[in-house]
Amino acid sequence: MPGRQIFSPWNTTLIVWIVTLSLYVMVHKELYAISSQFVYGITIWVFTFAFSSIVSFIFFPAYKKDSWVVCEKNVDIITIIALILVPFAVYKAVQHAMLIGSPEDLFLTLREQAIDPEENQLGIVKYFVYVINVLLIVEVSRNKIRKWRLLLVLALCLLFFIATMGKMTLFMYIFTSLYLLYESKKISLKPIFYCCLFFVVLVPVMFLLRGGSETETDGEVVGNLLIIYTVTSIIAFGYLTPNSSTMWGESTLRFFYGLLDSLGINVGTPPPIVQEFCNTPLPTNVYTVMSSYFKDFGFTGIFVFALIEGLVIGAMYKQSKTGNNLMMYLYAYIFTYLVTQFVDEQIFQGLSSIIQMAILILICHVKFSYSKKE
Predict the structure, then answer these.
(1) CA atoms within 13 Å, Cβ hemisphere of 171
(2) 79: phi > 0 → left, psi -120 to 50 → alpha, else beta; which?
(3) Whole-angstrom Cα Rg for the chain
(4) Helices of type H across 211-290
(5) I need a labelling partner for 206 at 20 to 30 A (CA). Which of 5, 28, 198, 257 fits?
(6) Other C-beta atoms lying within 10 Å of the C-beta of residue 373
(7) pLDDT band (50, 70, 90) for residue 159
(8) Which residues pair with 288 in a beta bridge?
(9) What integer pLDDT is reported at residue 339 of this predicted model?
């Protein structure tokens, strides 16, 4: 039965919003009230996404072929390339951060240069965030995990995290691994619960490492950050104006605008995504998964894209649960976006990364032959 799948798209969505709204109830006296705009939006989003994903799971055909086998040669080649390029790029990033900033502000400088195209030292290696994630997926999904290879990939994950100081990078690696380990019955729910507690501690610790605040005590920083990263987005959603984009679908369909532009079709370039801060009263610049759909198309956009995502992800989940291991790996990646949907929209705006992940996963399971058949 669909309802028994604890990490299904519908259950994950329900759990995320139940937890988020429960946290808001606990701290609502310190925050502004949520708007009726958010209430209407979240009702449309949750019920449409959950219903469409369940319907898709029930009616989409099951996978009836054999599971894909890992092409070890391809995995070895990709691992060797990562071992050469990633440590060198990280070294360059740390070296540059030391030159332009003080040792005390190393972590802050690393983060600043990671998001600044002019200062970024990773170059093409920045795309190896997906390569390393795929290598991690391959290793944790083996029937018998090779500990030394897993430790090697985990070291690469750590290096990449140090170079970028990006929370989503770390969340991606950990949530993907936990989901696959749970699905293969290698772990129970308890390690996942402890990992969630780890994230609660990690967010303020990372902020303190980056420099913290000069006007607040560490305790105040920790408390405020936990609130900012969990519930302020649902208040901030009330500040958004529906159908306010300057170009049709400028936020939601940004990937397609970029694709058309690369093909030489001039349809205009959407303005850069610069999320403005608003007060809740704590400052925040995240507006939940519904934000881009609402700004581009209003409540109709929330309904349409909840329907589309529900149908597609529900079908993907059905394939993953009936033996298609490639779909299981891709769903494990998207699972991180589902878990963090209370923060921002990352599926349509992250289509490029999803496509890259799909291609890399396929490469690791396809044997290329250059000899002619007799």
Answers:
(1) 18
(2) alpha
(3) 21
(4) 218-228, 232-236, 254-262
(5) 28
(6) 4
(7) confident
(8) 344
(9) 92
Preceding peptide of 281 cis, ω within 30°: yes
CA nearest neighbour of 353 among 254, 276, 210: 254
| pLDDT, position 207 | 53
pLDDT in tens, 252-267: 998 888 888 888 887 7
Q: DSSP letter at 288? A: B
Angle at 189 between CA 184 and CA 191, to 5 degrees: 95
Pairwise CA distance, residues 357 & 260, whole Å: 21
Q: Is 278 helix (H, G, I), strand (E, B) or coil?
A: strand
Whether 228 contacts 284, CB under 8 Å: yes
What's the pLDDT tens digit per position in 188-228?
888 887 777 776 666 555 555 545 445 544 445 556 777 77
Classified as helix, coil or strand, 284 is: strand
Q: At what angle do helices 9-27 and 325-339 cross, to 10 degrees?
A: 20
Which amino acid is it at 54? I
Residues in contact with 12: Cβ distance below 8 Å, sequence separation at least 6, in sequence order: 335, 338, 339
Chain centroid to CA 315: 19
Measured CA to CA, the distance from residue 95 to residue 32 in angstroms comes to: 44
For helices 351-363 and 72-100, the axis angle rounded to 10 degrees is: 140
> CA-CA distance, 278 to 237, in Å (whole number)?
10
Phi-psi sector, 361: left (phi>0), alpha (psi -120 to 50), beta: alpha
For 283, phi and psi rounded to 5 degrees? -70, 140
